[in-house]
Amino acid sequence: MSRGRIIRDTLAAVTIVNIGVIWVAQAAANSPTRPPDLAKGAVIAAQGLPPSVPPCAQCHAYNGASDGSGAFPRIAGQSAFYLAKELRDYASRVRTNAVMTPIAKALSSGGIADVTAYYASVKAPYLPLASPDAMLIERGGQLAKIGDARKDLQACDSCHGPGGAGEPPAIPYLAGQYEHYIALQLTMWKRGLRNNSPDAMADVAKRLDAQDIAAVAAYFQQVDASAPAATQPMK
Question: Cα(first)–Cα(last) distance of the chain, in Å?
């Protein structure tokens, strides 16, 4: 490995750590004074908070598996810390979405803590989906596990954990996430349409071409991270 590549990889790792530290500090500043209430979170998921907050289950399903189309991400078992950060980003318009922004703005800090704790606590089956092209998955696996030195891309797993199982609390899991959703988010980062995590994901996405985006999205949709996730140390 070249000295320049080592330096770039080291800087990338430092950036990820710094982002995590910043996120933790922001979360502490925005945390409610009481512990999250899973029962209240379940009510928000199932019934919403009329009149401004519709049931989360309308899009994400009560069990967080969503509908498999990829229009809405799978959020079951995702870190509560990460989900809460994304909701706060929607509320502050750091990340914008016509549906999620008004919902996030209408939730109190306690409501955010409750509903994200609920979805972090649930387990949901993986929906049966059509298998993507085998060669596409192979290329996606290379990017996920090894990266691409020609494009100065480190492996996705170096930040998102073995098999894309996530690195809680700050880094979300990708394993089992819907292909369409992953591809859409990478494309938005690439085009400057998603602005949170600019020093990490935006930089990575700009190095990916359309075929690479399709490949890594296809790979993570079908990968099973349960085994590598089980071997990671508890945090």
Answer: 31
Measure the CA angle with vertex 87, ends 94 and 10; round to 5°.
65
**Final residue of a structural domain among 121, 151, 167:** 121
Q: Which of 72, 89, 121 is the last residue of a domain?
A: 121
Residue 222 CA to residue 227 CA, distance in Å, equals: 14
The tens digit of pLDDT for each residue in 103-158 reads 999 999 999 999 999 999 999 999 999 988 999 999 999 999 999 999 999 999 99
Number of structural domains (the chain) is 2
Indicate the pTM of the whole model. 0.83
Q: What angle do CA 142, 146, 150 make, to 5 degrees?
A: 90
Render pLDDT for 20-47 as a digit per residue (tens, 0 to 9). Answer: 444 444 544 455 588 999 999 999 999 9
CA distance readout (Å), 38 to 26, 115, 117, 120, 227: 22, 7, 6, 10, 27
Cis status of the peptide bond prior to 32, with omega within 30 of 0: no
